[in-house]
# Entry
Amino acid sequence: MVESVPAGFERAKFSNPFLDMAGPYYVRPGDEGIIVGTRIHEGQINHINVAHGGVLGTLADVALSLQVHEAERPRLPVATMSLNTNYLAAAKLDDWVEANCRIDRMSKRTAYCSGRIVCGDTVLMTMTAVFAILRK
# Structure
């Protein structure tokens, strides 16, 4: 499959072996934060022909934490303290899915974020998270 990416998205610059396997991820600026997108590929599909729940869960964690990481310069190192997800619909092979997230509240050491993952007009997941900000 040749991966098609919607206009305005660029390959994410964050990378490690796990995220390379889980993605690839693409980013673009949104109204409230950075939108993170990916195309569902064959390696992410389970026995009922939809994306594994962990695929969307990983996208949720990546997209929510990215909002905090990019909130200041120098960039903030963060660690997930809590991630809550609500699965509402399934993603299928070749679906383009996007995570739209925002920071709801941020202090010196903690950030609270929320968002949703969509495929077109369909909401696949809603999510909230709390992150520890690992300032030196």
In short: The helical segments are 17-22, 53-69. The two ends are 44 Å apart (CA to CA). The chain is about 15% helix and 40% strand. The beta strands are 10-11, 26-29, 34-39, 78-87, 96-106, 110-119, 122-133.
